Amino acid sequence: MNAAKQERLPQLDIYRALAILGVLHVHSSSFAAGELALNSPYYYWLNWINIFFKFGTPSFIFLSSFVLFYNYYGRPVTRSLIGSFYRRRLKYILLPYLLASICYYALTLYAKGLLTQHPGESLSSFLGALFTGSAYAHLYFVFISIQFYLLFPLLLKLLQSSRFWVRWAFPLGLALQWVFILWNKVQLHIVEKGSLAISYLAYYMLGAYIAVHFEQIKLWLMKPWRELAVRHKVWAILLVTLWLGAAFTHVQLWYRARHFGIWTDSLWYELLWNVHTMLSALVLLYATFVIYRRAPRMIVAILTRLGEISFAVYLVHPLLLAVYRRFGTDVGTDSLIYVFYIYGGLAVALAGSWIMVQFAFRHIRSSWIALGNVPRSLSVQVPDKPVITGRNRTIEGNDISKS
């Protein structure tokens, strides 16, 4: 088995940047897309933002799997490899998850005036939230990633054992995911099923399949459009067309439900979300390589930096968004200003968390405890190193945002 170090893929930082922008759009529009702005003349647009950008978290899940299998598939599964794998996850993922869960749960209790009341019940409730990824709304993503890490060595060994398992990884993952969805609908009735990794198994297996076959796929990703074979152009056009069709159908379905109260079977929402976000993960992968190849260097540098710190931004941004909503201006939902108010929350969450995270990484040596792995360009050991352009980054680094 070839254990050579894989080629660097600096493009993936751009992928992470696009994914975190998707997450920020969804979170910043979540209140408005509910009942709060239901009668706003701009509700269609607010709902559109909230549904169209739901690709963020599933894309991170896909990328996490892709990076892990890309880095580890050609390496023998040894005790040393597994030990190193879990040490990094314990240090850069599990520890930040624990601290974020404590902080967000304590802040929630404080906001409700319950922080010092019934400490025994609060502790018990917190432990339940910790082990279900529900200490705060966004932490489920880290929790399901931890579940995947527990299974990863077994899945890696399975895919290494036979090309049969590689060939059928995605179809089997998709089938198992939907067996669980149907089982849950009919019998289990788990409300927080989104906190279980099996709900995203198809994304993990799609990432694994593409990672194993990346030598063939990257020929399509790396070449300019004019140099692509006709069949590759057809596949690219078909992918984008299907993606747009699924995305806008998904948006419309939720608009009819939320605005007019015309609801349909829950499986249709599940199916359209699945198709929309899975195609989004592939479109983002293609777009990432196009942006890296064609965009101005400044844009590449900005997106690269955002991608580098995306995990830390993911952890921090809900705090700033909550503060913005609590102390923000009371704007009527029937005004166009309300749309700008929603985007103001996005801007505050993005810029504020970016500034906080970058400052912590540059000046606080132990910032990795709360924010995960520190990018080399922001390490306190090299404070004077200039901002990178994104052209020479490695694929290694922080999990979820990097692996």
Structure description:
The chain has 403 residues and is mainly alpha-helical. The protein starts with 10 loop residues before the first helix and ends in a 32-residue tail after the last helix. It has two domains: 1-54 and 295-403, no CATH class; 60-212, no CATH class. The longest helix has 33 residues, at 79-111. Helix 3 (56-72) crosses helix 9, helix 4 runs antiparallel to helix 6 and helix 11 packs across helix 12. It has helices at residues 11-36, 43-52, 56-72, 79-111, 119-130, 140-161, 163-167, 169-188, 201-212, 214-222, 230-260, 266-294, 297-308, 310-327, 336-363, 368-371. Mean pLDDT is 91; it is low at 382-397.
List its salient traits.
403 residues, 2 domains, 16 helices, 71% helix, 0% strand
